[in-house]
Design brief:
Layout: E1 2-7, H1 15-26, E2 36-38, H2 52-55, H3 68-77, E3 80-89, E4 92-101, E5 104-110, E6 132-135, E7 138-144, H4 151-159, E8 164-169, H5 176-190, E9 193-198, E10 200-203, E11 206-209, E12 213-216, E13 220-224, E14 231-236, H6 239-243, E15 246-250, E16 254-257
Parallel strand pairs: 1-2, 2-3, 7-8, 8-9
Antiparallel strand pairs: 1-14, 3-4, 4-5, 6-7, 9-12, 10-11, 12-13, 15-16
Helix pairs in contact: 1-3
Length: 277
């Protein structure tokens, strides 16, 4: 299948403009010919809000009819896409990410790990467990930005059967090191495809570094950029290579299995809380 990351700018606090921006991207080659297209975090809303009250008018309920053009475009091009938005659910506000396809909204996720940055200072903590969503032949896990700095949820998605983890992110300029190191590390340790789509541009004093990437099993970088301009990254991927966790580097002499070699009986303390200054 063909996997594409869209490294896009975002219009702050303008949902209609950003929906149109997504539709414009979906009409370009090779995006329109892809099977899965990954867009950044907060793609429809913008990120650098200064208060919860400022952000609330630019949040969407899951039933919002403004998602319909995205679903129609997915049907037109026979593809699936993931992108970020602010979600309003009653009195709650979430940094959310969703998977869309011709069949509608296939699944969505609310950001669990929140840094002290932008809108994440004001949203509620995500309350949806990490899940796998089935889109065509692929098993897809979703995460948002800071989530990837924690290996545990990425391993959980892998153990649940993810072929691909899509990461929508808003890495600012100071996070270029994270963009360079973490995606290949997560794809290597879980032997799967990891697609990180960062945004670019500036917003309320924040500049965003770009540096999107697509990494494959064993941490191989399939496509990447160190630039901070709008662009797309595309890679042809073989899902079977992510499903076979056995790696034979030297026949009969150097063989590892990313899952079978685990010793989880020694990891029992991993989830215990320890407070650190």
């Amino acid at each position: 299948m063909l996997l594409t990351c869209v490294q896009s700018d975002v219009t702050f606090a303008d949902i209609p403009a950003n929906i149109q921006r997504v539709l414009n991207w979906l009409d370009t080659a090779p995006v329109q010919n892809s099977d899965l297209v990954v867009f950044p975090e907060c793609m429809l809303s913008g990120y650098a809000y200064d208060s919860r009250d400022e952000a609330l008018p630019h949040a969407m309920e899951l039933s919002d009819s403004r998602f319909e053009p995205l679903i129609e475009a997915a049907a037109t091009h026979d593809l699936r896409l993931t992108l970020g938005f602010l979600e309003r659910s009653g009195d709650l506000l979430f940094n959310a990410y969703a998977l869309f396809g011709p069949e509608g909204m296939i699944g969505h996720y609310r950001k669990i790990h929140l840094p002290h940055l932008g809108i994440d200072r004001f949203v509620d903590r995500g309350d949806i467990p990490y899940q796998i969503h089935h889109a065509g032949p692929a098993n897809i896990g979703m995460a948002i930005c800071y989530d990837c700095s924690f290996p545990e949820p990425m391993r959980l998605l892998a153990l649940e059967g993810a072929d691909i983890i899509t990461l929508g992110t808003n890495w600012p300029n100071g996070a270029a090191r994270t963009a360079a190191v973490v995606p290949p590390a997560r794809s290597m340790e879980n032997h799967l495809f990891f697609a990180a789509a960062n945004r670019v541009g500036e917003e309320n004093g924040f500049g965003f570094c770009g540096c999107s990437s697509i990494c494959g099993p064993d941490g191989i970088v399939l496509a990447s950029t160190d630039r901070s301009d709008e662009q797309t990254l595309t890679a042809e991927i073989d899902l079977d290579s992510a499903r076979n966790k056995r790696i034979e580097r030297v026949p009969g002499k150097h063989v590892i299995h990313r899952f079978n070699d685990r010793r989880p009986e020694f990891y029992a303390d991993l989830s215990k809380r320890r407070d650190h200054a």
